[in-house]
Write a structure and sequence with these properties.
This protein is of the alpha/beta class. The protein is built from eight helices and seven strands, in the order H-H-H-E-H-E-H-E-H-E-H-E-H-E-E. Helix 4 links the parallel strand 1 and strand 2. The longest helix has 15 residues.
């Protein structure tokens, strides 16, 4: 028994993966390629991807939203978990990074499930709201510009159906959220976002200490 979450050492983390991670080869190959890149730290961890895939299956999601695609690991996890007629709307601005994502979507046979929108995410979200798509998404994953998290969240909330789930990444920001020496815009934006969600007593939430912190919020 333990009254608080365990600290994960490297050895314990390796054990965790060895007895729980069921990563298809195509995901592992994508992760390995991304790990060679300068911005490799922007990729989610494999256990987080598997966790989100399980959540998607649990809520029976068919239409999902991803804000921040990078090289496509999280969107590939999502697409593989969706039924044959499922759909991922992915928002990103980088042709370079998403070109890698497209290769692996094709390799995995799920490219037909993914609708990539190359434009600032807020523009894409507003377009979908104006097109009458509010209340039609089952699941959303937010993992892009930290200073825009609040704007992403408010728009995503409109697009999500009742009973739908939002997952917000990097809410612990490598521990910087509790370190007063960090006063940068991104860290302060995460602090403000976390506090605003905690103070909104109308919605159920849980901050899960997986990877860099993942907040789950269910729309009543």
């Amino acid at each position: 028994m333990s009254k608080k979450t365990l600290q994960i050492t490297d050895a314990l983390y390796d054990y965790l993966l060895s007895v729980s991670l069921r990563e298809p080869d195509v995901l592992r190959e994508l992760r390995d390629e991304t790990n060679t890149m300068e911005k490799a730290n922007m990729q989610i961890s494999p256990e987080q991807g598997q966790f989100m895939a399980l959540l998607i299956e649990l809520i029976g999601a068919k239409k999902t939203l991803e804000i921040g695609v990078f090289t496509g690991y999280s969107s590939l996890c999502t697409a593989l978990a969706l039924p044959p007629d499922g759909k991922v709307v992915g928002c990103d601005v980088s042709e370079e990074w998403t070109a890698i994502a497209k290769r692996y979507w094709e390799k995995a046979g799920v490219s037909h499930k993914i609708d990539l929108r190359l434009a600032p995410a807020i523009e894409t979200l507003d377009q979908m709201i104006n097109a009458g798509e509010s209340g039609t998404f089952d699941f959303a994953f937010i993992d892009a510009e930290k200073t825009e998290y609040e704007d992403y969240y408010q728009r995503t909330w409109k697009l999500l159906r009742s009973g739908g789930l939002i997952a917000i990444d990097n809410v612990l920001r490598s521990g910087r959220v509790i370190d007063p020496d960090f006063d940068d815009e991104d860290t302060n934006a995460i602090r403000d976002f976390n506090l605003a969600r905690f103070n909104d007593k109308s919605v159920p939430l849980s901050l899960v200490p997986i990877a860099d912190g993942l907040t789950l919020i269910r729309k009543p």
